[in-house]
Specification:
- Helices cover 48% and strands 14% of the residues.
- It is an alpha+beta fold.
- The strands form 4 sheets. Strands 7-8-9-10-12-11 form a 6-stranded antiparallel beta sheet, with helices on both faces.
- A hairpin with a 2-residue loop joins strand 5 and strand 6.
- The longest helix is centred in the C-terminal third of the chain and has 29 residues.
Amino acid sequence: MTDEFNEGNENIFDPVASKAERFDKGVAIRKITPRSSHQEWNPSKDREDPVEILIKTSIGRIESLLPIRYSRMMESPFAFFRGAAAIMAADLVQTPNTEIDLQLCGDCHLMNFGGFATPERKLVFDINDFDETFPGPWEWDLKRLAASFVIAGRWRKFSNKTCKEFAWNVADSYKRHMLEYSKLSALQIWYADIDLAELIERGDDEEIKSFQQKRIKKAAEYTAHEKEFAKMTYHKGPRARIKDDPPLIYHPTGEQGKRALLEAETIHNKYLETLSDEKKVLLSRYTLHDLAIKVVGVGSVGTLCGISLLMSATGEPIFLQFKEARKSVLEANVKAKSKYTHQGERIVRGQKLMQSASDMFLGWTNNADNSKFFYIRQLRDAKVKPVLEIMKAKNMNDYAKACGWALARAHARTGDPSVLSGYIGKSNEFANAISRFSVSYANQNEEDYNKMLEAIKEGRLPISAEI
């Protein structure tokens, strides 16, 4: 465990106490924070205007990209939810708290899970977005994940009863797998991962199973950098250049472009310093050829994100993605203060704490005057994203169980699974509470979404047609 985790949690994890004693400690916490209390969502009378929170989180972003951010968020309540981590973080402070802190994902919704390749080329299922990672109450991740299933389910036009079932399965799977992890040693937990092929094989929908198996076969064979090179670049003289596709991919121009090119080498070299020696040796075979701004995701739109193209002397490419790292939306809402002044390092350290295996090129960097922080990883590496549009209710329930499992595994690494299992127990009380909360919060999300639409009509938030 990190010092950052331990500083605020000396009384939670006791390595001397037996598993049974720690389990009993979790049971005792129910007297202070009953499991049923987690069903509560009662917005306070002085709840901050969600539109004002969105405006605050846009400060410091690239102004010309803000219309794309709000255009993406207005597509549906689900798209809004994906970009509204700061709103939910402020709301979760008002909910019952077990005072059991561990490393959180911070933006734990169902689209931030998926399959990807480990450095050993094994395909695993895990959480894959850590921009908001920070220590905090374990139940916050679970509530955001479960609520996301209700919101996504409504977007897919499933019944309210079915959507509630999705959320219930998230919490139930978390409970069952946390109990399993409570019986393992800390080292066994650290070794644990979720094999993507085995996970897909468990399903009994033959059509979806066949679709997913084809996807992982393609992912395993996918030589990402070479294919991206053919698709995304052109030659300008002896050098390869990334193709512009404005407004989503573009090169900075004018004075901004000149500054970006001057800083690129410095930023890249600072990034290399954060890698282990063997990764430095590997990347020493490549030189930086080009970089471009690339608009990504929903919540990240407007932050400075992009791609860089590295080439070896013999013409082999590597694409790296850089993303601006800002303060976690959780930081203002929890007691703990970050031990990391570098926001890119915060993200990388949190990701390595929670993931079973991280990108081999994961590192951090900053610009010359330390005004912007970044983290860097490969652009794509055998990633298998969820395709919600084709999922039936059975598939969504299976996916909910998989996400609950992955979250339990991640939490078991920096939390105490014995304490957590003791608190959750073996009954359905906790899962029932989380599913009820998720329905209530989905209703709140729809209200907030409508407030955003009103703000757009009033001209408070800019939008534009996205190419």
